[in-house]
Amino acid sequence: MLLSAREVSRSFGSFVALANASLDVGEGEIVGLIGPNGAGKSTFFNCVAGDIPPTTGRIVFSDIDVTRASAATHARLGIGRTFQVPATFEEMSILDNVMVGAFLRHHHRGEARAAAREIIEFTGLKALAESPAKSLGTPGRKRLEIARVLATEPRLLLLDEALAGLTPTEIQEAIALVRRIHAKGVTIVIVEHIMEVILTLAERVLVFNQGLTIASGKPREVVNDPAVIEAYLGRRHARDPGAHAP
Amino acid sequence: MTIVQVIVGGLLLGAVYALFSSGLTLIWGMMNVINFAHGEFVMIGMYIAFLIVTFLNGGPLAFGPAAAALLFLFGIVVYYSLIRHVMRGPMLAQILSTFGLALLLRYLAFWIFTANFKTLPQDLLPGVINVGGILIGVPQFVAGIVAIVLTIGLHLLLTRTAVGSQLLAVAEDRQAAMLMGIRPDRMQAIAWGLSGAGAGIAGALIATFYYISPTVGESLALTAFVVVALGGFGSVPGALAAGLVVGVIQSLSAYLLGPVYKDIIVYGLFVAILWVRPEGLFGKAGA
Amino acid sequence: MIWFGILLAGLFVLYPWVIADDFYGRMGADVLLAAIGASAWNILGGYAGQISVGHAVFFGVGAYLPLLAFTHLGLPPVAGVPLAVVISLGVAVVIGLPTFRLHGHYFSMATIAVAELIRIAISNWDFVGAATGLMGPAVARTWLDLSFRSPIPYYYLFLVVLACLLLLTWHLQRSRMGYYWRAIRAGERPARSLGVPVARYKLYALLLSAAFTSLAGSLYSLMVGFIDPESGFGILRSVEMIIIAALGGAGTLFGPLLGAVILIPLQTTTNSLFGGGGSGLTYILYGGIIVILARFEPGGLLDLARRIAQWWSRRRDGVAVRHAA
Are C293 and C246 in contact (CB under 8 A)? Predict the structure, then answer.
C-alpha cells in the first residue's frame, strides 16, 4: 500500500468539510476522486498533499506517517500535486519553473537544468522553454504545473482538476500525457469533474458528497450506484458543467 | 495621581486606539493588506480639526464629522487610485504603495504646517471631571466615550446591517461573495472609506488633548499595528479589547517606569505577540 | 554586452582619478555606499520578496559597534565590525524566526517595530551616546583607524566591498538558493508543494542581507566618523535603501547600483537647492517616487528598459508577436 488514508476528517470551526474519509492506494494505480462541488474532495486532497492538517485521522505514505507533515516534507518523500487554479511562477521562464522542481533532487544548476529539459521535452513544452510562464494560456499553465511537479520525481502524483477548461483535443492530449506519466511508474490520484476522463483513466473511483465518501469501486459500477446518481442529479448546480448524468 | 487614575486614563486613550485600529483590522481581514499610511490618516484628522478651529471657528461638533467625512472620501480615493491596482501585483508594490503614501503625506504636512507643534485652544472642551475621586480631563473623557461608542457602532454595522454582512462576506470568502452577487471591489472601497473615517475622527478627538505635529503618524501607526496584532487580524471586537489593553499598558508603563518606556513596552509587546501568539486574541491565523 | 560591462567597470574604477575633486569624490563614495546598502536589502527584499521596512536596524548596529569600540575601548573602529555582524545576525534571527512562518505583511510590520524599538532604546541609553550619538577618531592615530582626509580611499574601499557583494549575489542567484528565493517570491504555496523549505530559505536571505547591511553601516561610520540614533536607526535610513533598490529594479543584480547613481546626486542637488526646507522637499519627492514606482513600475527602471528594448526589437523586426497558447 503506497498511500493509506484512514478516517480523515477536517472541520473549519463548526463547519465539517470532511468526515471520516478513507482511501488506500496501491503502487501503480490510478484512482479518481469525484463528487459535486463542495463535497469535500478538495479538502481531502489538500490533507493528503500536506497543505492542511486533518482534524482527525491518519495518513501513511510508504510506511511513513505524514499526517502532520508539511507540504515540503510531502514533496521530499515523493508526493507531488498540482493546483486547481494553476500557480505557476509567472515572471520566471518555463525552464526556470521546472528547474525549481528539479532542484529538489539535483542540487547543482547544471544537473537541475538537464533534468528540467528532459521533463520539458517529455511534456511537450520544448518550444516554449525560454518564454515566461505568464505568456501561457490556462492549458499551457496546467501543463507547466505538471512538468514542474514531475521534476520533483514524485512516486505519487495528485492531480487537482488538471483537465478542467480544456478543449476536447486538449483533453485527449492531457489524457495521453497522464498515461505516459503512469507508464513511468508514477501512482496517480486524480480529482476530476469530467466523467469521460474518469471513466477513461481511473481504475478505481471514490465518490464524495457533503463531506462523506458515499461510494467506491470500479468507475462503471460507481456511476450506476443510486446514491451517486442522487448526489449528482439531486444536487446539480447550474454552474457545474462537468457533472453530466452517467 | 493614583494607579486607578492612570488605568482609567489608559482605558480612555485605549478606546481611541481601538477606534482607529478597527478600520485597519477590517482592511486586513478583507484584503490581507496593511496600510502603512494609517497613522498619517489620523494625523490628517488632527490637522483638519486644527484648520476648522483656526479658520472657521468651528468646535468639536463641526470638526469631528468633517474629519470623518473628508477622510472617508480620502480612503475611497486612495483605494481606487492606488490600492486596487497594486493589490493585483507583487508584494513589493503593495507594501511600497502605502509606505510611500505615508512618507508623502508626512512630509507634505511638514512642508505645509512646519514642524512646530500645534494645539487646539484649551477652552474647546474645558474642565476636569471628578468621577468618584478620579480626575479626568473632559477632552480625554469625551474622546474615550465617543471612541467606544463608534467602535461598537462599527461592529454593529458589520454584523447587523446588509452592507456590513456584505463586507464580512468578502472578508470571509471572496469567490463565494462574488458568486452571490456582491462586488468585492466596491466593498473594499467602502472598507477603506470606513477605515479613513475612523482614523479621521480619532485624530480629531486626539487633537483636543494632544499636540498636533506631522510626526505623530509614525508612532500611532505602530500602536495600531500592535492593537491589530494583539486583537487578531480581522477582528473588530478584538481591536476593541486589544486597544483598551494597549492603552492601559502604555499608561502604566509611563507611570511606573517613565515616559520613555511607553513606546518601548508597546513595541516589545508586539514582538512578543509575534513570537507567542501571532493570531492574537480573537483573530484568524494569518498563515 | 561584455565590452559595455568592462567599459562601465573601467569608468567606476577611474572615476576618482578623472574627477579630481573632493566634493564629487565624496559623492562617488556616497553613491557606492548607498549601492552597498541597497544591494544588501535587495537580497531579501528583491530576490526573496520579503519586504523589510526596518532594515536600518542592521545598518545602525553596524554603524554603532565600531564607534563604540573606539569610544569605550580605544580600539580602531574597524575592530568593532565583526561583532556588529554577529549582533545583526542575532537580531535577524529574533525577527525572522517567528515572522517567517506567517504571511508577508507580518514580517514588514515586525521589521518596522523592531527598528523603532531599538532606535528609542538607543536614544535613551547613555552608554551608546543616547541622543547625541558617538564620534570616531578626530585624527587618525594609525592607518588602522581608516580615518582618511580624502574621500578617495573610501571610494576604493567601498568599490571593493560592492564588487564582492555583487559577485556573491550573482553566484547565489543562479544557484539553487537563488531559484528557491525567486520561487518563494513568486508563490510560497506552490513553492512548498515542490519541496522548498520556505521558512529556512527566507532566513538565509535575511541573514545574508543583515550581514551586508551591517557592513554598510560600519563603512558609513568609518567614513563619516559620527553616528546618532536617527542617522543609524531612523526610518529614513530604511527608506533610502528600499527606494534606491526599487528605483533601479528590485530583484536585479545592478538595479540598486543604478538607483544609487540616480538618486544620490539627485538628493544632493535637492538638498542644496531648497536650503533649509530642502530635506522636507527631498522626502516629499521620495514619497512621491515610491508611490509612482509602486503604482506604475514596480519592476523599476531596469525592468522598464528591458520592456522598451523588447518593444523596440519587435518593432524593428516588423513582427507582431502572438504568444503560444
Answer: yes
Instruction: Classify the complex by whether its ipTM is higher than 0.85, answering yes or no.
Output: yes
The boundaries of the domain holding residue A28 are: 3-86+155-234
CA distances for B159 relative to B163, B235, C171, angstroms: 9, 12, 54
Distance from CA of C141 to the nearest CA of B (A): 38
Q: Do B34 and C109 touch (CB under 8 A)?
A: yes
Nearest chain C CA: its distance from A92 CA (Å): 8
| Span A22-69, pLDDT tens digits | 899 999 999 999 887 777 888 888 999 998 889 899 999 999 999 999
| A132 secondary structure, DSSP code | B
CA distance, residue C225 to nearest chain A CA (Å): 43
Q: Whole domain around residue B255: which residue ranges?
A: 3-114+132-276
**For residue C135, what is the enclosing H or E element?**
strand C134-135
Chains with 3 or more CB pairs under 8 A to chain A? C
CA-CA distances (angstroms) from residue A32 to A29, A196, C160, C216? 10, 12, 60, 57
Q: What digits encode the pLDDT tens for the residues C23-53?
A: 888 999 999 999 999 999 999 999 999 999 9
On whether residue A50 sits in a domain, the answer given is yes
Per CB-CB distance under 8 Å, the chain C contacts of B92 are 45-46, 49, 51, 246, 250, 294, 298
Edge-first strand order for the sheet with A64-65 is: A15-25, A3-12, A56-61, A64-65
Q: Is the pLDDT reported for residue A230 higher than 60?
A: yes
The domain that holds B231 is classified in CATH as 1.10.3470
pLDDT in tens, B71-124: 999 999 999 999 999 988 888 898 899 999 999 999 999 989 888 888 888 777
Per-residue pLDDT, averaged over C43-64, amounts to 94
Q: Which long-range contacts (CB under 8 A, 24 or more apart) does B253-258 make?
A: B255/B1, B255/B3, B255/B6
**Residue A184: inside a domain:** yes
* C94 interface with B at CB cutoff 8 Å: yes
pLDDT score, position C317: 75
Domain annotation covers residue B184: yes
Chain C CA closest to residue A50: C193
CA angle B207, B208, B214 (to 5 degrees): 15
| Residue B283 domain flag | no
In a domain, B240, yes or no: yes
Instruction: Using pLDDT thresholds of 50, 70 and 90, give the confidence band for residue A237.
Output: very low
Lowest-confidence pick of A117-121, A208-212, C30-34, C99-103:
C99-103
Asked if B248 contacts B232 with a C-beta cutoff of 8 angstroms, the reply is no
Task: State the cell numbers at A11.
Answer: 472541520
Domain count within chain A: 1
Mutate which of C55, C103, C111 to disrupt the B interface (most B C-beta within 10 Å)? C103
Minimum distance, in Å, between the CA of residue B214 and any CA atom of chain C: 11
Mean pLDDT, range C238-257, rounded to an integer: 94
A202, A28 Cβ separation under 8 angstroms: no
Taking a contact as any Cβ pair under 8 Å apart, which residues of chain C between 20 and 39 contact chain B?
A: none
CATH of the domain at A168: 3.40.50.300
Helix (H), strand (E) at residue A207: strand A204-209
Name A221's Cβ contacts closer than 8 Å, sequence gap at least 6. Answer: none
* Domain-embedded: residue A63: yes
Q: Check whether B153 has a pLDDT greater than 70.
A: yes
- E runs forming strands in chain B: 128-131, 134-137
Q: Do C182 and A96 touch (CB under 8 A)?
A: yes
Burial pattern A145-183, b for ≥16 Cβ within 10 A else e, equals bbbbbbbbbbbbbbbbbbbbebeeebbebbbebbeebbe
Give residue A234's pLDDT band: very low, low, confident or very high (50, 70, 90): low
Q: Is residue B127 part of a domain?
A: no
* HSE-CB for B280 with a 13 A CA cutoff: 30
| Residue A226 within a domain | yes
Please state whether beta strands A204-209 and A30-34 pair in parallel, antiparallel, or not at all (unpaired).
parallel
